[in-house]
Fold this sequence. Notes:
Blueprint: H1 21-29, H2 37-46, E1 52-59, E2 68-74, E3 83-88, H3 95-107, E4 117-121, H4 126-131, H5 165-174, E5 181-187, H6 191-203, E6 219-223, H7 227-242, E7 255-256, E8 259-263, E9 266-269, E10 286-292, H8 301-321, H9 325-328
Parallel strand pairs: 3-4, 3-5, 5-10, 6-9
Antiparallel strand pairs: 1-2, 2-4, 6-10, 7-8, 8-9
Helix pairs in contact: 3-8, 7-8
Amino acid sequence: MTSTSTTAFYPVGTPGTPWGDTEKTQWRETRQIQRSYPEQVVTKIDLLKDRYDVQEYGSLSQDPTKYKLYSVRTKQWDDSKPNVLITGGVHGYETSGVQGALLFLDTVAHQYEHQYNILVAPCVSPWGYETIQRWNCQAVDPNRSFNPNGTMVPGRSFNPEAATEESSALLQHLAGLSFVCHLDLHETTDTDDSEFRPAKAARDGKMEPPNDSIPDGFYLVSDMTKEAETKEWYTSMIEAVRKVTHIAPPDPDNTLIGEPVCQPGVIAIPSPKDLGLCAGLTDAFYATTTEVYPDSESATPEICNKAQVACIQGALDYLIKNPSPAVAATC
Length: 331
């Protein structure tokens, strides 16, 4: 586990005072383009067009021409097959969420076309990808915005935030579709401690950011309301990832990021839908958020991307071998 002590307050805003429009504008204007969405993401999507159906489902008002939103789905969509959703880049700075989703499409997704219809939104937050930011350009966390009227849980960092262009466009794109499985691909990085937690504390008018440690390794986020029914599914994913990278050990109090560990490499939280998380975007019975640690001494970008792919494969392989009523009901 790693942890960074934050002694200086965030450089935007006044300590203890929530941000208004002036502070949000100041924050946005100090963000810099650090990599290219067109070159690193869109060009790879274009290369998939001969094998998959690519759809443009919206764009961001920050730059509609540059920040177009894409989904990629298996050809010959068959309503008799269950649907699987993969999302990446909801937090744009979490690189392997984006690149892992694209690697899955490029390498192994075709192996599952006979069993599933697969839809992938590889980069939900392209502005965040380019600026390497957790928030969108309005200083809102997209991964708290999929149910802005959800349950406010006192004292938790998961509280829902306002709807975003990113979440609204994806919700509209998926309207009318049901999914049996949804994997939302994320990372937990050292910058969560050095940048994003202090920024959130400053934005919300809090004097100090939370001081949770950063898990060293891969882990998954589960819905505690389905913990018993999905336990073996989570085991399948963790064991698949274990072949690629290490699994995060729990803190001494048997938590990760302050949440209880319910089995090795898996934490349990309240319903993702109530908390506004992307993993609650659909009514999929099998839904999870992945987290990999790219700053580990034993990790590389390639390992992190492969870990995301291994997790997807572990999830789908389990469901193929163990067709449950939740899967059968979609057929």
